[in-house]
Amino acid sequence: MANSEPVTYGGWQSEKSGFMGRLSGPGFALVAAASISALIPINLGSWSAALVCVPVSLLLLLLALGRVMGLSADEWIVLAVRHQIAVSKKRNLFFSGAFAPSSKTTGEQPMDLPGVLARLRILQAPDGLGGQLGVAHDPVTGVYTAVARITFPGLALVDNDKQDARVAAWAGLLRSFCTEDSPIVRIAVHQRCLPDDGAALRSWTARHITSDAPAAAVTALAEVMEGAGPAATSRETYLSVTMSASRARLAIKGAGGGQVGAAAVLVRETTAMLGSLSTASLQVVEWLSPRAVAQTVRTAYDPDAQLTLATRNAAAEEKDWTGTAPGVDPALAGPAAAETGWGTYRHDGAWTVTYQVRTWPQSEVYATFLQPLLRPRRNARRSMSLIYEPIGPRRARQELAREKAKRNSARQLRAKTGRDESEDERREAGIARTQDAARAAGQGVVRMTAVLAVTVTDVGELETACAELQADAAASGLELRRMWGAQDVGFAASALPLGQGLPDRRMGF
User: Fold this and answer.
1) For strand 184-196 and strand 132-138, is the pairing parallel, antiparallel, or unpaired?
2) How many domains does the chain have?
3) SS3 content of the chain, % helix, strand, coil (to 5)
4) Is residue 435 in a domain?
5) What is residue 77's three-state secondary structure?
6) Does one domain contain both 199 and 333?
7) In this model, does residue 223 exceed pLDDT 80?
């Protein structure tokens, strides 16, 4: 018998990573300085000293404890100073091509990407099926990422039992990596929703219409495509799997060592995932080749290249095609130029604004609550990355125990000082206990975040597109925060399916 009531979900817990309580390191230093400043007049017994020190102490406390748009004043200052230093040294500007330095060993130019992506290299590895797999390698953090293009039938048009089964299967996939010895350290789902003017469809139709086709049918087909093409939107969904070389060092050594061995181990891990992905109704269309990975990067930086590449790729499927191979050369994946602003990121002929989800729904929600975020828009393209980092049992136990201890200490302190406990604090304490009980029962614990980007090719439509995104996020019960001073980092995480991960500590975006 089908379940008449859909399952609801909730219990998201914000990560606490303050140096002392909710204070950052600079914030704690400001509070300490304020306390010392307030004690100086008492120690000196001077009213004139109090007239100077007390206002200074209040100002320091305001900088440490006052919050604007979720950030304290000291965090805003750190962001502003860091951004101004980058601007003064022109680190916020990027130029590719002839301006890129050549390799000292080979004399060739490396893959040309800006900012945090400059260190990435796209490697090539056999996929075990006769094809080639593109692997994004970050030599600084020692991780290897494979990207798959996937399809998903969705949740909106199925009954409640199928919805619950698909969500449970995805949860089971994530839980399978919450082990101490799992080499997979990050899984990210990336989806793009972008306008499509139908150029690729018209190109394909023109090549396949036969010379003896009825004139009336050709005319009718042209009229349909002319009207429906520009109103269409296309979606691309990718799954990225990131492996840590340090966690898989024994397996890599057994596979031959080095980058070749690491790529072989990653291919083995991705092959083992296929059954679990199928159970969750995720169908892998293809594991991207190096040129396909480069194409996803290129089309994110240059949206106008999407139509050209789609048309060329469609033509390349013809048997007699002798032109350029599908995809993009990895050396040409990056933008021609990019500029990081305080609240925007300009790349080639487009502008992007990136947001991070800072507050998830406080109430119980259905499995389809994220649908409004990728609602088709004709004036802008949207991208969203859901990033998961599985946590091993030992670390999960430590983290949850630390979280419970902090909350219990705060509750005891409030009880001693006679302050009432708010409903929000009671709810957070209850969620912490529920999570710890679920962990003890064998459930997995993951760090999770969502990063969104909205991109336009007409700067006059940027703020309208941003307002629409924020309205749709509010409809989903989400609180977004613009990633001020870190738009290039946000773009790499939200607009590209390269599995860029969470920071070790929360950054002040």
Assistant:
1) unpaired
2) 2
3) 45, 20, 35
4) no
5) helix
6) yes
7) no
